[in-house]
Amino acid sequence: MAGVRPGRRLEEQNVRQPFRIAGMILLGASFVVSARAQQPGEATYKAKCAMCHGADGTANTPVGKSMKLRSLKSDEDVKASDDTLFKQTKEGVGKMQGYAGKLTDAQIRDVVSYIRTLQK
Question: DSSP of the chain, one letter per residue?
Fold first, then answer.
């Protein structure tokens, strides 16, 4: 190229390189954040449980209040074993329908694990 001193293109590449690296790091970090942002069971809980039990598990929803649901953060539910919560979710309890045939056992276990995160 006429008028361009030798090595100029190399200098331009050296200047751009840190920006490319930073872009790749940010892209990689966004995948890690999105993977951690949603825990197993969270999407199922939001789709199947939150309408009654609330996004935070306190049952502070119109349906939760009308059905007089206790908070999933209550001592009774916090002390309940995972197997008990699994059974109640699968078979139903009180006015709550069971989810056998609607959710897999793995999905129910994931929901129980997610409920445990709400109880912290």
Answer: -TTPPTTHHHHHHHHHHHHHHHHHHHHHHHHHHHHHHS-TTHHHHHHHTHHHH-TTSS--SHHHHHTTPPPTTSHHHHHS-HHHHHHHHHH-BTTBPP-BTTB-HHHHHHHHHHHHHHT-
